[in-house]
Design goal:
The complex is a heterodimer of chains A (259) and B (400).
Chain A (H helix, E strand, L loop, with lengths): L1 E6 L3 E7 L5 E8 L4 H16 L7 E5 L11 E2 L2 H12 L5 E5 L4 E6 L5 E7 L7 H10 L4 H9 L12 H13 L4 H23 L5 E4 L6 H11 L3 E2 L7 H17 L1
Parallel strand pairs in A: 1-4, 4-5, 6-9, 9-10
Antiparallel strand pairs in A: 1-2, 2-3, 6-7, 7-8
Helix pairs in contact in A: 2-8, 3-5, 3-6, 4-6, 6-7
Chain B lengths: L11 H20 L3 E4 L6 H5 L3 E3 L1 H10 L3 H10 L8 H11 L14 E5 L5 H13 L3 E4 L10 H22 L5 H23 L10 H7 L1 H5 L4 H19 L10 E6 L7 H10 L2 E6 L14 H10 L7 H14 L4 E7 L3 H4 L2 H12 L3 E6 L9 H15 L1
Parallel strand pairs in B: 1-2, 1-3, 3-4, 5-6, 5-7, 7-8
Helix pairs in contact in B: 1-11, 3-5, 4-5, 5-6, 7-13, 8-11, 14-16
The chains are: A alpha/beta (259), B alpha/beta (400).
The structure holds iron/sulfur cluster (SF4).
């Protein structure tokens, strides 16, 4: 068996797999202030769900909090883990776009499932889940309602600022001038898709392309990104768990290496 | 693992002595009213041959960075109204002139002239103008228009004309003259020193590499700042002997070399030793970098002024992106490197602009992976360690 723990800035994800790589249990919670605490909670939950004794199971941690998990046997970056996780789910994927709460990354995946090139956007909240959260707040809808709202739009209203703070005041201005919330929401997704598409082009477009991370669940985001890249996008059933799955698979590999 | 991952150079003691002497000479020159501040790519052989002492504010910036007081000194410049986007060497320097008592070594000795050459960037001129406003010393600019491709005769003639004006300026300002044989002597000494330094750099083609990049970042100080002095030459000869010794005995800069990388750009002075130290533990060494390789070349021509004009126009930062890409590809091939790290320095637009494009092209041409990390050489507020670490780790996971 293998355990993968992905300690993101917003959520902590855990996956337990059997030795063939099949998922036995998975769990996800908000990271909160103390990443190591979140990791322990997720591990307890995996134990409960699987009803197995997990004390000695090979564990790999990933994500920005990866080095804070003392009980992990190894920590591996989210770049490698996402690449391995996506490859495991769909070996054809050549480019992976992962959009999380506070960062986004684009990874070119080699034929062995390992990354061959990557770009990260993590200095700035534009192009991350945080951008959508801020805009949802201004539009007074929940983050889950923002995507469906945007899909109702027939003519998205362009949001030209890429900076989250500037875009926020731009959106407030649009609301003031009477633009419909649906058109504004659509414009917000379009701006976000444009930003991610630029990041992707830096790595180089190679299809098939996969999208993962919490933001991938948003249907309007996928629509606009697909349009911006002029390409269909593949998404796994549980896009948020891809990194943790990759970590779990690497944990099995690690255990068989050391035996 | 009781042994340290990193081997310390014995010649570092010598280096410290050299730098101490440079500082004392600067103070003495300042007291005599014969000190100029110069930029890192300034044709310094001319003031040196005219017996004018020199101090390097950029080298001082590196000290500010290493002492981890960048945010404080840069903050003083920001209080005066300078933007955080301004080069942090400039901000640190302006801050230290404003509050010397708060600055390492109590600031640089006060200059009687400010000599700028824009072969590295245009910022230096405005920075020296700002200093001039504060302390009254006049600014002189040697203008070296950027080069794309070969340097044409009219370009040399133009720069040469600027150098002649420099001589008149220094004569007037300091009451000295330039003697042909003295210039020949100083440039010969520079050529010889640079030659020995280049041998030290090239010895890093050996496996294991006898020097890591942090060693070279320290060892480069005299070849930049103390040219045309015999004790500088003596230091590099000592360093070269130590390097040759290491090579002969198969000793590397780090104990267990596994991965060889190229470093691009100025280092984050406040963090470079920690980064290099922790990478050394994982078997990562940097046998080459574009920064310390920027101070090479020789003065051979019969006409020394023309030779100076040509050498200082052709410095790394004064050439186009294509030349930078060629240089990186050349170093990767010649030093047999497995990958490269490009440090994108928020302060230095001239060095960092185009890195994303270069990364792609260098990878394509050499077939080795690279990564861009972001930060600053002095202002640690512009750097996020966790983000730098993730990118470096991901690169190593591709290689190890
Ligand atoms: S901008 Fe770059 S080249 Fe110019 S002084 Fe600053 S660090 Fe040096």
């Amino acid at each position: 068996m293998g355990i993968g723990l992905d300690l993101g800035s917003t959520t902590t994800k855990g996956v337990l797999v059997d030795k063939s790589g099949k998922v036995i249990a998975a769990h996800l919670i908000p990271t909160g202030a103390i990443a190591s605490k979140a990791a322990e909670t997720v591990l307890e939950e995996l134990t409960k769900l699987s009803q197995l004794e997990l004390g000695d199971v090979s564990t790999v941690s990933t994500g920005y909090g990866r080095t804070q998990v003392k009980f992990a046997h190894e920590s591996i970056t989210e770049i490698t883990c996402h690449s391995v996780g996506a490859h495991n789910l769909n070996p054809g994927i050549k480019l992976l776009i992962d959009v999380g709460g506070q960062d986004s990354k684009v990874i070119r995946i080699g034929s062995n499932g390992r990354p061959t090139d990557f770009e990260l956007n993590d200095k700035c909240s534009a192009g991350t889940g945080r951008f959508l959260e801020v805009m949802a707040r201004v539009l007074e809808v929940s983050i889950d309602e923002l995507g469906p709202l945007a899909l109702k739009s027939k003519s998205p209203c362009p949001i030209s600022s890429t900076c989250t703070v500037f875009a926020e005041s731009e959106v407030i201005g649009r609301i003031g001038s009477g633009e419909s919330p649906a058109n504004i929401a659509a414009g917000v997704h379009q701006a976000m898709a444009a930003k991610i598409s630029t990041l992707s082009r830096r790595v180089g477009i190679a299809s098939p392309i996969g999208v993962t991370g919490g933001v991938a669940r948003n249907p309007a985001f996928r629509n606009y990104l697909s349009a911006a890249l002029n390409c269909d996008l593949w998404m796994p059933e549980e896009p948020q768990l891809t990194g943790a799955l990759g970590a779990a698979i690497l944990a099995i590999a690690r255990a068989s290496d050391t035996v | 693992m009781s042994e340290k991952a990193y081997r310390v150079l014995e010649s570092h003691n010598f280096l410290q002595g050299v730098m101490y002497r440079y500082m004392l000479e600067g103070h003495a020159a300042s007291e005599e009213g014969k000190l100029a501040w110069v930029t890192s790519g300034f044709p310094v052989e001319i003031p040196v041959a005219m017996d004018v002492g020199v101090s390097y504010p950029e080298q001082y910036g590196a000290i500010v960075g290493s002492e981890k007081v960048g945010p404080k000194l840069c903050g003083y410049a920001e209080e005066l109204g300078y933007s955080q986007e301004l080069c942090s060497y400039a901000r640190a320097s302006i801050g230290s002139v404003k509050y010397p008592e708060e600055s390492p070594l109590e600031g640089l000795p006060a200059p009687q002239a400010l000599l700028a050459c824009n072969n590295i960037c245009g910022t230096v001129l405005r920075w020296y103008d700002a200093i001039s406003q504060m302390i009254g010393a006049p600014v002189f600019l040697v203008d070296t228009p950027p080069l794309e491709g070969e340097q044409l005769p009219h370009h040399i003639a133009y720069v040469r004309h600027g150098l002649d004006n420099l001589v008149s300026f220094l004569s007037e300002q300091f009451g000295t003259t330039l003697k042909e044989d003295k210039l020949r002597e100083v440039t010969d000494l520079s050529t010889e020193t640079i030659g020995v330094w280049t041998q030290c750099l090239e010895a890093c083609k050996n496996k294991p590499s006898p020097l890591n990049c942090a060693d070279r970042f320290l060892a480069m100080a005299p070849v930049v700042a103390i040219r045309g002095r015999d004790y500088t030459l003596e230091y590099y000869q000592t360093l070269l002997n130590e390097v040759k010794d290491r090579v002969a005995n198969g000793l590397g800069a780090i104990r267990d070399e596994k991965v060889r990388l190229l470093w691009d750009n100025i280092p984050p002075w406040f963090r470079v030793f920690r980064i290099m130290g922790s990478l050394a533990k994982r078997g990562v060494v940097f046998p080459a970098d574009t920064y310390t390789h920027a101070w090479t070349g020789s003065f051979k021509d019969e006409d020394r002024m023309d030779s100076i004009a040509s050498m200082y126009s052709n410095v790394y930062l004064n050439k186009g992106l294509e030349a930078k890409i060629d240089k990186m590809c050349g170093l990767i091939k010649d030093y047999d490197l497995d990958g490269f790290v490009m440090f994108s320095v928020r302060s230095c637009k001239r060095y960092s602009l185009g890195q994303l494009v270069s990364k792609e092209l260098v990878s394509e041409r050499t077939g080795v992976p690279g990564v861009v990390i972001e930060g600053d050489m002095v202002d640690s507020r512009l750097q996020n360690d966790a983000q730098v670490e993730t990118r470096l780790d991901a690169l190593l996971e591709m290689l190890l």
